[in-house]
Specification:
This is Sarcosine oxidase subunit delta. The protein has one helix and six strands. The protein is mainly beta and 105 residues long. The structure holds zinc ion (ZN).
Length: 105
């Protein structure tokens, strides 16, 4: 069983959450120029990688908030948990706890 670190509630068991599928799906624009193939791709086609996957999760039996998870689909290791408005994290810079490493400039 996964232990997911909800950004609002802290670590909780997987049974409290539901996965909402792939995250960072962008609606094609402008809408009047979108082809049928582009629209079909947006609606129906999703990544199914063996390895790192960016997913939306909701804390259904908790705070009911949505957030993103970067998870390895082979090991189920959660690399990062981040807010819906945040960009994809650079997983090469992540520490084992899922936090971004501080870089000295
Ligand atoms: Zn929560």
């Amino acid at each position: 069983m996964l232990k997911i670190d909800c950004p609002w509630c802290g670590p909780r068991a997987e049974v409290e959450f539901c996965c909402g599928g792939e995250s960072h799906i962008q609606r094609p624009e402008p809408f009047d120029k979108v082809t049928d193939a582009e629209w079909a791709s947006y609606l129906f086609y999703r990544q199914n990688p063996k390895g790192l996957h960016f997913e939306r999760w909701v804390h259904k039996h908790g705070c009911r908030q949505w957030f993103n998870v970067a998870r390895d689909t082979v090991t189920h290791e959660i690399k990062s948990v981040y807010l819906m408005a945040d960009p994809k994290p650079d997983v090469q810079k992540l520490t084992p706890t899922g936090k971004q490493k501080e870089t000295n400039k």
